[in-house]
Specification:
The protein is α+β, with helices and mostly antiparallel strands. The chain has helices spanning about 25-35, 120-130, 135-150, and strands spanning about 5-10, 10-15, 45-50, 55, 60-65, 65, 70, 75-85, 95-110, 115, 120, 150-155, 155-159. The protein has two domains: about 5-35, no CATH class; about 45-159, no CATH class. Strand 1 (about 5-10) and strand 2 (about 10-15) form a beta hairpin. The two termini are about 45 Å apart.
Length: about 160
């Protein structure tokens, strides 16, 4: 029943009972719909209110390869590839996987520019900046610059 429903808006799906579903099978059709797992698309968004210094970041926002320097703040983002190797005999059916391990550190230094080839979440960057006392204005300037550089993988909304 691929054509039985469509997204009406970001929070609603409109479903029509297909013509080929007999009146005796309507409950079975509705039950099959109720069993479906729906994974909504949550857009990556950063919302900034410059007047109040409020920054709201969606959970799936990431930052791609970039270099960041803001005043005397220095941002270092490092990613290592780790190998997860299942241990026999408990690993029947398990496979070896390469997983990223990202670390973010921020310090107050001379303000020189560091290039960082990785992908990290905005949450990791914000936590590191907050740990050294970066102001909301510092964060706003960094997010705005990341967006203009194309490294902020999200829609930036300034209020």
């Amino acid at each position: 029943y691929a054509d039985a429903g469509y997204a009406q808006d970001p929070g609603s799906v409109r479903v029509q009972i297909p013509k080929d579903v007999s009146s005796g099978n309507v409950l079975r059709f509705v039950d099959s719909i109720m069993q479906l797992d729906v994974e909504p698309h949550v857009p990556a968004v950063v919302v900034i209110n410059e007047r109040t210094g409020t920054i709201v970041v969606g959970g799936n926002v990431t930052i791609t390869e970039t270099a960041v320097a803001q005043g005397a703040l220095v941002v270092k983002i490092k990613e290592e590839q780790l190998v997860s190797q299942p241990i026999a005999p408990f690993s029947r059916g398990a496979t070896t996987a390469v997983v990223p391990d990202s670390t973010v550190s921020v310090s107050e230094g001379e303000g020189h520019l560091i290039t960082v080839p990785t992908t990290v979440t905005v949450e990791e960057l914000a936590n590191a900046l907050n740990a050294i006392g970066a102001t909301p204005n510092d964060l706003i300037a960094i997010f705005d610059a990341l967006n203009k550089a194309g490294a902020l993988q999200a829609k930036l909304e300034m209020m």
